[in-house]
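ligand=zinc ion
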Amino acid sequence: MDFEIIDFHTHPYKNVLQCTCIHQSAIKISIDETLKVMDNSGVSLFCGSVITRELPKTPEEAWEILKGYNKDALILADYYKGRYLPGIHVHPYFAKESISEIEKYQNHGVKIIGELVPWRYCHNNLYCTGGMDEILDFASSKKMVLSIHPTAPDDMDKLCENHPNLIIVGAHPGEGEQFERHVLRAKKYKNYYVDLSGSGIHRYGATKRLIDEIGVDKVIFGSDYAIANLQMYVDGVLNDHLLTAEEKRLIFADNAKRILDI
Ligand SMILES: [Zn+2]
C-alpha cells in the first residue's frame, strides 16, 4: 500500500559543515542529494531547521550562527520549491530579536520553530526561562508550531503548561523514564505531540504503545535526517505489523497536515 509521507523532523543542509551525518565519508553530500534521499524513501515533504555539529561557546556566538541558519533554511526552501517547510531558530537570551525573526519569517510563510536544540546552542538546556516564555507567548499568538529536542522531563512538562495553546512536538521517544514521561505529558497536555525520530521505535511495540497510550492523532512521523537513516524510519512504520493502515496514514502525513494546517 502506498502512503503519502511527510518527514516532520529533518535537518537539510547547504554545505558539509551543516550536514549532520556522522559518517560523511560514506555518503554523498549535496543539496540535490537530500532530494534524492527523500525521493528514494517516498517522502514528499520534509520539515525542520538547519543545524550544524559545531558548538558555539557563548549565547552571543550561538545567536549569530542561528540567525544565519534561519537565512539558509529560507534559501533551501526556495531551492526545494515546495518540498521543504523550514523551521527557524529562536534564542531565549535574545527575546526581542527572536520575536522579530518569527515575524519576518512568518511573512515568508514559515510555520515551524525548530527543531530547537538547547544543549547545543547555549540555552542552559531549558525551555522555561523568562526570555523563552516571552518568545513562545508570541509564537503561540501567531499559531506557530514548536518542534523541540527534549530537555529534562519537568522542564518539558512546565513548558506545555505555560503555553497551552502552542502546539509542541517533542522529538525522540527514547526509552525508560524518557518514554514514560513523553506518554504522561501527551496524556495530560492536549497541546503535546511526539515525533518518532531518534531512539525509541527500534524497540518492538514502542510505536503501537504510543498510539494506545496517547492516541494515534498525537504521533508524528520524523526521522532526524541526516544524522539518522531515513529509510529505516520509513520502514519501521511502514512494515510495523502492529499498526493498521489507517494508523500509518495518520502518522505518515495526516497528523502533520492537521497541526501545520496545510
Ligand atoms: Zn533533530
